[in-house]
Every structure is written in C-alpha cells, then in structure tokens.
C-alpha cells in the first residue's frame, strides 16, 4: 500500500484508457484483476488481525476484484465469506467468480463479520443505488469493526465527488492503480477514511495529482533579509486581516514584511508605513498581498490601492475583498495567485460545469493566474493545465482569518522565488500542516504563528 502524496489523479475515462493501454488483451486485463485482488487480500490480511472478513461483490469488475481477493484469502487460510448483489455481468467478473469455490451468500441475507470489504461498485458509478443495495451495505458496515472499500465506496460518483447514494464511512479505501477525483473531492472524500494506493502495474500519467510535501525555500550562509524575500501587504478598512496576512508571511519564512496602511503594533519585526504608491515601490517587493480586510464600502481606500497594485509588474496574491472588486476577465501584468473561497469563485467565474478540478483549471486558463480554490478539498490550478488537490483539511480551519493566513503564506513563497504553482502548493501544504498540529478550536492568530514550526 502506497501513501497518496504526490500521486496522479485520473478520471474514470482516463483510468479505463490507461488500463486498456497497459493490458490490450482479455488475458492481460484479467492479470490486472488478479493483481488488484491480490492487493486487496494483502491489505485485509495485514489490517484484520486474523478476524473473519465478509467481501461484498457487485456485478462488474469491482466485484471481480472482490472474488479474486476472497479466493486468495481462502487459499491462505484466512477466514473469509462472500456475499453478492447479483450474478457477475462482465466477462472478467465471471472469470473471477469461477475461481471462487466457496458459497456465495445473498447480500440481503448476509450475516455481519468483524471486517467488511465493499467491492460492490467502484470506478465509473454515476447513479444512485437502490434500497436493496444500500440498506444491507449500511447494516453490515454498522456491525463491522473494520470497513474497507475497494477503489471507491459504493454510492459515490468517481469524477466529481458527488454522492448519489450516501455510503457508510469507511476506515480505509484502497485506490486501485491511481487516485480518482472522488477520493479527494467533497462530499465524497469524507467517506474514504485512510486512503492507500495499490499498484496494479498500470502507468498512470496525469496533469492532476495529490498535494505532496514541498521542498520549502531555505536560507543559506549568504542570505539576508532581502534575499529571503520582501513581502508587501496592503491594508484597508479592516486592518486586522492584513495584520494576519503580514504575520503569516513572516512566520512562513519571508525575510522582510512591509505592511502599508496600518498603524504600528506587535509584532515589531513587521515594518509599517502609511499607504502610498511611493512606499510600495521604494524597494521592489518579491510579492504584494492585497485583499485581506481591503473593504468594499470606502472607494477612496480600495480603488486607488487595488488599481495601483494591479498596475505594477510585481508578483501579486489577490484574496478576499480584492477578488470582489476585480473586473472579469482581468489581465494581470505579473505572476498572480488568486485565493477564492466558493462564494468568491462563483462571483468571479460563475457556477460553471464539471468538477471542482475542472472549474479551477478552466478559471486558471481564463484568467492567466494560478487559482487556489479554497475549501476542505482545496484545488490549485495553473494556467498551463496542471492541477493539485489537497487531501481533506482540518474542519477547524472554518474560522475567521484563516484565509488571510493562507494569502500571507502564498506571498512568502512567491517572494522566495517559487513559481506561482509551486508557491501555492507550498503555502497550502504549510497552512494545512499547521492546522493539524494545532488541533481543535485555534485562532487564526495561532495559525499564523504556527507556520514557523511546520517548516
């Protein structure tokens, strides 16, 4: 079982194409099923502590994987039972069923077991399941002490993370060959439990991948405050938000943070100046962050500050209120990161079509900026077609100011010289890690300071 960090993400159609390219004959395809079933069996053997497993098999190839896993477990002497929703309907599943010489229980009548393995429906499902399937699945899952899903929990839609039929919550989901969008996109992601990837021998190239731990910029012996990156944060009507962004930039590693338009207060390491275009350009910033607390009411504040920033060639992070004031589409002069939450994204780009990944990628292409589409399933997309999906974030990030912290961290990474996609990935990773380390009920102030400990 392989950790998911940095692994490619494929849609159902992309996964089918990858499998067909790797296994062009029926025998080769069945060899893939044997490898998948063997991987599932090994995971059950490792995780179950010898307890009896009940494998639920559907009519398609996901059920075929289950038949293979059950056969291998039985051959190894592991206690295993098998229940089926119906007879196999695909040639591969029928071939796998023929290799199982034990009894097949009816799904509706099956008794529970300590370990439940869901191999009913995997990749490709895009419809709701009928009550004759969901009721026994929930009944058996509720009675099990360990619940494993093969490829995907039955009831979730592969490509967009929708949940046509609510599945049980699983302890472990075993992704076959590659991650799928539903593994990381909400609401489906909340049902996955721990995600692990099983290598079945299928090359899976993709321009979409899971977030991985980045190589963060580090100072060297010859570094000084300006070589480490100068971040300028522009304040507005609500200076507390800009203070948070500036504090976050400093704790994320910026060597010099200049806060324009806010009065002096702690931390004293942040340099404060009144707002002016001249103050913005005294030293060439490595990144300018604008939007946190900029405001929407006082046009004498936000219009000159935002228009001045957008007229510069400096790398820019646009967050919060700045996103509400952008003309759409907007042409940016320098490297740009936009960090919208769902409401800001819809305001900028409309509701759109497809998954959150599709929408973020389309927005990046349209705007020419790197998009950080925030949420429990944050998606980062570049104008060049690359996309990165972050695993489920701490629910405690749902508090005021955490987005300002992320904007500051993005600014620090841009100022350190990373390209916008790498800067956004590093900031999202650092932000999520700090939240997990803090645990429950933290303040955004704690989160900003906590970035230092996560580098």
UniProtKB/TrEMBL annotation:
Its EC number is 4.2.1.136, 5.1.99.6. Residues 10-208 form the YjeF N-terminal domain. Its cofactor is Mg(2+); K(+). Residues 208-455 form the YjeF C-terminal domain. It catalyses: (6S)-NADHX + ADP = AMP + phosphate + NADH + H(+); (6R)-NADPHX = (6S)-NADPHX; (6S)-NADPHX + ADP = AMP + phosphate + NADPH + H(+); (6R)-NADHX = (6S)-NADHX. Binds 1 potassium ion per subunit. AMP binds at residues 374-378, 403. GO terms for molecular function: ADP-dependent NAD(P)H-hydrate dehydratase activity; ATP binding; metal ion binding; NAD(P)HX epimerase activity. (6S)-NADPHX binds at residues 61-65, 122-128, 151, 241, 293, 341, 404. Keywords: ATP-binding, Isomerase, Lyase, Metal-binding, Multifunctional enzyme, NAD, NADP, Nucleotide-binding, Potassium. Gene3D superfamilies: 3.40.1190.20, YjeF N-terminal domain. K(+) binds at residues 62, 118, 154. One of its GO terms (biological process) is metabolite repair. It comes from the Bacteria. HAMAP family: NADHX_dehydratase, NADHX_epimerase. Homotetramer. Bifunctional enzyme that catalyzes the epimerization of the S- and R-forms of NAD(P)HX and the dehydration of the S-form of NAD(P)HX at the expense of ADP, which is converted to AMP. This allows the repair of both epimers of NAD(P)HX, a damaged form of NAD(P)H that is a result of enzymatic or heat-dependent hydration. Catalyzes the epimerization of the S- and R-forms of NAD(P)HX, a damaged form of NAD(P)H that is a result of enzymatic or heat-dependent hydration. This is a prerequisite for the S-specific NAD(P)H-hydrate dehydratase to allow the repair of both epimers of NAD(P)HX. Belongs to the NnrD/CARKD family. Belongs to the NnrE/AIBP family. PANTHER family: ATP-DEPENDENT (S)-NAD(P)H-HYDRATE DEHYDRATASE (PTHR12592:SF0), ATP-DEPENDENT (S)-NAD(P)H-HYDRATE DEHYDRATASE FAMILY MEMBER (PTHR12592). This is Bifunctional NAD(P)H-hydrate repair enzyme. It comes from Sphingomonas lenta. The gene is nnrE.
């Amino acid at each position: 079982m392989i950790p998911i960090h940095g692994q490619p993400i494929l849609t159902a159609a992309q996964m089918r194409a990858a499998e067909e390219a790797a296994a062009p004959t029926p025998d080769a395809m069945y060899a893939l099923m044997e490898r998948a079933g063997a991987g599932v069996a090994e995971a059950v053997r490792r995780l179950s502590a010898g307890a009896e497993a009940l494998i639920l098999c559907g009519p398609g190839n996901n059920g075929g994987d289950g038949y293979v896993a059950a056969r291998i477990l039985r051959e190894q002497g592991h206690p295993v039972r098998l229940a089926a929703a119906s007879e196999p309907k695909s040639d591969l599943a029928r071939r796998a069923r023929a290799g199982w010489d034990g009894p097949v229980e009816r799904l509706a009548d099956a008794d529970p077991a300590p370990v439940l393995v869901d191999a009913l429906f995997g990749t490709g499902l895009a419809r709701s399941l009928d009550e004759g399937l969901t009721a026994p699945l929930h009944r058996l899952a509720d009675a099990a002490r360990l619940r494993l899903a093969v490829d995907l929990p039955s009831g979730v839609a592969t490509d967009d993370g929708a949940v046509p039929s609510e599945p049980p919550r699983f302890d472990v989901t075993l992704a076959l060959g590659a991650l799928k969008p539903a593994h990381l996109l909400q609401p489906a992601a909340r049902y996955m439990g721990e995600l692990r990837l099983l290598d079945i021998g299928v090359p899976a190239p993709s321009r979409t991948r899971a977030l991985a731990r980045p190589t963060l910029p580090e100072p060297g012996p010859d570094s000084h405050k300006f070589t480490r990156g100068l971040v300028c944060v522009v304040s507005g009507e609500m200076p507390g938000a800009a203070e948070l962004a500036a504090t976050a930039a400093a704790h994320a590693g910026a060597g010099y943070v200049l806060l324009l338009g806010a009065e002096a207060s702690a931390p004293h390491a942040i340099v404060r100046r009144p707002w002016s275009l001249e103050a913005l350009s005294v030293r060439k910033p490595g990144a300018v962050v604008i939007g946190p607390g900029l405001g929407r009411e006082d046009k004498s504040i936000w219009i000159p500050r935002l228009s001045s920033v957008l007229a510069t060639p400096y790398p820019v992070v646009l967050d919060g209120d700045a996103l509400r004031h952008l003309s759409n589409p907007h042409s940016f002069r320098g490297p740009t990161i936009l960090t919208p939450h769902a409401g800001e994204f819809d305001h900028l780009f409309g509701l759109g079509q497809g998954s959150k990944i599709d929408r973020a990628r389309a927005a990046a292409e349209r705007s020419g900026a790197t998009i950080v589409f925030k949420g429990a399933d944050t998606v980062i997309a570049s104008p060049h077609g690359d996309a990165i999906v972050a695993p489920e974030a701490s629910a405690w990030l749902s508090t005021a100011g955490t987005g300002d912290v992320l904007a500051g961290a993005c600014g620090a990474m841009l100022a350190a010289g990373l390209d916008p996609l790498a800067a956004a990935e590093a900031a999202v990773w650092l932000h999520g890690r700090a939240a997990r380390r803090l645990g429950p009920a933290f303040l955004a102030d704690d989160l900003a300071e906590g970035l230092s400990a996560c580098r």
